[in-house]
Specification:
It contains 15 helices and eight strands. The protein is an alpha/beta fold. The strands form two sheets. Strands 1-8-5-4-2-3 form a six-stranded parallel sheet, with helices on both faces. It has a two-stranded antiparallel ribbon with strand order 6-7. Helix 4 crosses helix 5, helix 7 packs across helix 11 and helix 8 packs antiparallel against helix 9. The longest helix is centred in the middle third of the chain and has 23 residues. It is globular and about 65 Å long.
Length: 391
């Protein structure tokens, strides 16, 4: 594996009553806070009132940016950055899931940009050397944004969706209370669980690069945690242990620790970003549809051993099978988990998607080089075939 440096600055408060520390943490950064959130769910569950009480206790002057989209728009990020510049905001507070946190990361960077469009930063036309500090209060276990430095921003005007890494853009503090996820729907719970698994698949597990055995085993344990607890959370939304395990698995799937020493394209994420850029579908659901078809498409003598290992160590596939038989059984078991156990619809056509944009999406997924370098290299022709397998 490659040389690496691991550092994660995010301080995590985990548990039922940890939000009581919000007032002391937010006050460390100044007196003006911009609270960023999505729809009305945080108000319906009473979380909004709890957050505002903490901010009042800290003596903060509060500004708000509601309405962050499920795939956050760059225009929404620009609105937040404009508020920061106009009002002299000291610290940001994201209250929500991955989309809200991603938007906040974009705002943190754009607020320090002399221009007025975060898309300049996302596309690499400009850069910043610092970002505003920010805190998160997590309400959905899925993206791992509460403990990593990346974000994904969408431009609906151009049907583009790209990842962005600003300097030092991990949250400063994150509050993880599993009870805040009790009201998450079975569908979003299932989609979020698929997203957690895909982070491990895409970034590190399905890789031809040399790996550290300790990390590979820990990746499998996080995957097994999702396989065990996601169905419980779907069936019994207020099961604290299930929600707690999913929440912590989400954070550790993408906080850098499990994939240090790896460097490869996140193939399924690249393909799915085009789906949600064009059709605005739920990211985790798109990944669930894509992943088993991608594995089937790339299955060969070289890739089969790792796919087989995943099946036997994570999904309890019969260990007496040959490597190729085990790999095929692993893919079928993964499909069964996503589409039968978790109840996600199995095809893009179920989401109203046809093939009219596939060629363009495949080309954009492969980027300017025209190749996705991952477990196996994929050309636009390969990607288009995988999309068609998903119809």
């Amino acid at each position: 594996m490659r040389d690496f440096v691991f550092e994660n600055k995010t301080k995590v408060y985990f548990g039922k009553n940890q939000l009581n520390h919000l007032h002391e943490e937010v006050a460390r950064f100044g007196k003006k806070v911009l609270v960023v959130y999505g729809g009305g769910s945080i108000k319906r569950i009473g979380l909004y009132d709890k957050v505002m009480a903490e901010l009042q206790q800290a003596g903060m002057t509060v500004f708000e940016l509601p309405g962050v989209e499920p795939n956050p728009h760059h225009t929404t990020v620009n609105k937040g950055a404009a508020i920061c510049k106009q009002e002299g905001i000291d610290v940001l507070l994201a209250v929500g899931g991955g989309s809200t946190i991603d938007a906040t990361k974009g705002i943190a960077a754009a607020a320090k940009y002399e221009g007025d469009d975060v898309w300049d930063l996302v596309t690499g036309k400009a850069s910043v050397s610092e970002t505003l500090p920010f805190i998160t209060v997590l309400t959905l276990s899925a993206t791992g944004s509460e403990m990593d430095g990346g974000c994904v921003i969408s431009n609906v005007e151009t049907n583009e969706k790209y990842g962005y890494f600003a300097p030092d853009n991990n949250p400063d503090v994150s509050f993880l209370d599993p009870t805040n996820t009790f009201t998450v729907s079975p569908y979003q719970t299932a989609s979020g669980s698929a997203d957690i698994m895909s982070h491990i698949f895409d970034v590190a597990y399905f890789s031809k690069q040399p790996s550290m055995d300790m990390l590979r085993r820990m990746q499998e344990e996080v995957l097994r945690t999702v396989v065990k607890y996601a169905p419980i959370a779907v069936g019994k939304p207020d099961d604290y242990e299930a929600r707690a395990n999913l929440m912590w698995a989400s954070s550790w799937a993408l906080n850098g620790f499990l994939y240090d020493g790896y460097f490869q394209a996140t193939v399924c994420h690249s393909m799915e970003h085009e789906l949600s850029a064009f059709y605005d579908i739920t990211h985790g659901h798109g990944l669930a549809i894509l992943t088993p078809r991608w594995l089937s498409y790339i299955l060969n003598e070289e890739t089969a051993p790792i796919i087989c290992q995943f099946g036997m160590n994570v999904l309890d596939v019969d260990m007496s099978l040959t490597v190729m038989e085990g790999a095929k059984a692993a893919i079928k078991a993964l499909e069964a988990f996503f589409f039968e156990t978790l109840g996600l619809k199995p095809r893009l056509s179920d989401l109203g998607i046809d093939d009219k944009n596939f060629a363009l999406m495949a080309k954009k997924a492969c980027g300017p080089e025209g190749v996705l370098h991952g477990f196996t290299d994929l050309t636009p022709e390969d990607v288009e075939k995988i999309y068609r397998m998903c119809l």
